[in-house]
Amino acid sequence: MAVVSTEQLPVKAEPDVVAARRRVREVSSQIGFSLVDQTKVVTAASELARNTIIYGGGGTMKVETLNGPRSGLRLTFEDRGPGIADIDMALRDGFTTGSGLGLGLGGAKRLVNEFEIDSRVGEGTRITITRWK
Amino acid sequence: MGQYLLVTIQVDMHDRLAMSLQDDLTKMISETETRGVLIDISSLEIVDSFIGRMLANIAAMSRVLDAETVVVGMQPAVAITLVELGLSLPGVQTALNVDKGMELLQSSRNGNREMYGGRFN
After folding, report:
1. Is the per-residue pLDDT at B8 higher than 90?
2. Alpha-carbon distance B41 to nearest alpha carbon in chain A (angstroms)
3. Whole-model pTM?
4. Quick one: which of A56, A58, B4, B19 has the most CB atoms within 10 Å?
C-alpha cells in the first residue's frame, strides 16, 4: 500500500467542519467511491471533525489517498485536547459528555472499514479511519 | 400554502445555521398557526447526528405546538448512511417527495393517518 497524496486541513471552528466535508467528498469522488460510500465517509468525517472541535478544542484533519491492491481514503483527526479517559465507554452508542446524541464515535466507526483511536488523558486524541474502494 | 409551511434546505448547513433554523421555524409555527411543516432535504448530501437531531427536535417541538412535521426527499444514500450511523429519527415522519408529504399532512389532519406509511423507525 502506498500513500498517493497527503494534505492537511485545519479543524478549529464550525465552518471548518463544512470545509472538511466538502474536501472529503471531492477526494472520495476522485478515488471513484460509489455514492453510498462517499456519503458514508463524508458523514464519518463530519462526526469526527465536530468531535475534534467540541471535545478536542480544535485540531487538524489529514487526508491521504491510498493505492495498492485496493485504493482507499485515510483520514486522521488529531487534537491536543484533554483526551478520552474511557475509550470503550466513548464508543458506546448513547454515551456523551457533551450535549449530542452520543452517536458520533460509534457511528463513525460503523461507517468505515478501519477505525483506530489513540488517546492520552491530558495530551490529546488521534483517530484514524480508512475506507477502501 | 395556507396552514402549511414548506422549508427547503439548499445549503450544506454548519451547526449554528441548523440551530437557528430550528429556532426560526418554531417561532414561525406559533406565529402563523401552522398545522403542518414539510422539510425538503433533497439537496442535502449528508445527514449526520447533528442534523438528525435537529430534524427530530423540530418534529418534537412542532408536535407540542400542534403541528405535524414531515421530512421529504431524503436521498437513498443518505438514508442508508443514517441507519448505519445508528440514527433512526424517532418520531419523525418521512415521505418520498413534497407531494406525498403533503398528502400525509392532509390525511393526518383528517384523522386517517393509518392509510399511509412513511414513519421512519
Report:
1. yes
2. 15
3. 0.90
4. A56
